[in-house]
DNA sequence: CGGATTATTGAGTAATATCAATCAGCGTGG
DNA sequence: CCACGCTGATTGATATTACTCAATAATCCG
């Protein structure tokens, strides 16, 4: 089993961020079966209400989870980067209430639920690792809810940028000070519950304050702490160790 | 092991809604150890950032999960009813990013993580059931995000009312047409991202349209389908069967 | 009854959405 | 290399929605 697919390696790396895995367990991950699929920009991989038999692992590119409203508007409820298993959830609840689509060209691995279920049954510790992984997803979502529900436009967008930066950094895919953001302003709006016009104006405000610098799809953060402060961002919710009692660095609650 | 605590019985009932459990597995649930705690209105059981060693099972009363902003405002990110294990999550991620508080007088059982971990390890199927249970929580949260992010005040509130009604009904604790709502208008606002003043006015609009009738803490829904229509509510996201391919009744996507 | 929440109301303000252009970048075909 | 057509970014003007502040009425609770 030399030379596992890069996607599986990334996934393993992600799991190891939060869970301690034995050699055998790691090997089991790297040996998961999969089907590689290339996706074009804006392709929908999964539509809301589908019943799926596999989970979608991002090997390359950025994907998102979304919900559609009757009037055509869209809410993005998650942002996925390489190493993320988009709907690991669906192993235990195969009828999903949301869709998954690609923000840019992407490569994904479809990993059969049966395979995931098998390794999770053989290695209980892997079941816990999977569960822990989806828990992180839920933790992020809870933070999105409070971000959307209780903040003004500017800090809302800033919070999203902080989160993405940290996640990319933790995944070894960039730095919080500079990363590629494959989202249009409209998609940012769909993530934080704003209009593209308002996103545009709010981002101009962030630029005017020197909090962000944009060039093409490159997002640069000259002074990360200042952006985190403006966003009221505290990274603790992203760090789901098995037994964390650690505290975060920036921001303070209440 | 005759006469398990009512809280455990409710929890088992809740798990069985979505998972098939063997006799032994059911017995293991009913035999979980716990510490019973009485809570007064507005008590905080858990504060954001705490590391907990137990999960909190609601035996009686209504609880909520919340996040606090620097300016003192609060976002409620979940609503828990009897039978719900508030932070089953925390079994695998004991440092929680949120708080739990009671909306009214309540009784909860604190179930040690060790006990939950033990039964989940002994019965892999229980691990999946737990995982599935937290997945439902996440599914609800995703729906809250789109509710908050992409809907006007009136449908937002209506959606919350629909959801609570269905959940109480499914838990055998009331009917979607009439149930007790232990939330103040301010708390409703904290759940849907609105001011109490605006909640008040929006609920007046709902009443004027004949969509809801309130008396004390009793919420009555004369024509449930009409409310669901106004809320753009489709209950599918609440039904997380192991292998659902069923469709919902009301509402339509896209 | 008295004090404390909670609900309701009104008036004024701020934030965000909407609508409609225009501008800029970028790939394509000629 | 350039004109064309597309998507996404930006701008301006206006309409709505929701928030704020401040007061009053209702209820609750002992």
If you had to describe this structure to a student in words, what would you say it looks like?
2 copies of one chain form a homodimer. With 254 residues, the first copy, chain A, is an alpha+beta fold. Chain A is 41% helix and 19% strand. Chain A has 8 helices and 10 strands. In chain A, helix 5 crosses helix 6 (185-192). The longest helix of chain A has 27 residues, at 124-150. Chain A is globular, with a radius of gyration of 18 Å. The first copy, chain A, starts with 5 loop residues before the first helix and ends in a 23-residue tail after the last helix. At the A-B interface, strand 4, strand 5, helix 3 and helix 4 of A face strand 4, strand 5, helix 3 and helix 4 of B. Chain A binds a DNA duplex (30 and 30 nucleotides) through residues 152-153, 184-186, 194-198, 200-201, 204, 216.
How many DSSP-defined strands of chain A? 10
Strand arrangement across the biggest beta sheet of chain A: 2-6-4-5
Provide a count of the helices of chain A: 8
Number of discrete domains of chain A: 2
- What is the level 1 CATH name of the largest domain in chain A? Mainly Beta
Tell me, rounded to a whole number, the average pLDDT of chain A. Answer: 92
Distance from N terminus to C terminus of chain A (CA atoms, Å) equals 50 Å
Q: How would you sum up the major sheet of chain A?
A: 4 strands, antiparallel
Instruction: Sketch the topology of chain A as an H/E string, one letter per element.
Output: HHEEEEEEEHHHEHHEEH
**Quaternary organization:** homodimer
- The rough form of chain A would be described as globular
Question: Ranges of chain A with pLDDT <50 over ≥5 residues?
Answer: 244-254
> Fraction of residues of chain A in helices?
40-55%
Assign the CATH architecture of the largest domain in chain A: Sandwich
Q: What is the C-alpha radius of gyration of chain A, as a whole number of Å?
A: 18 Å
Biggest interface pair, counts: A-B, 65 and 65 residues
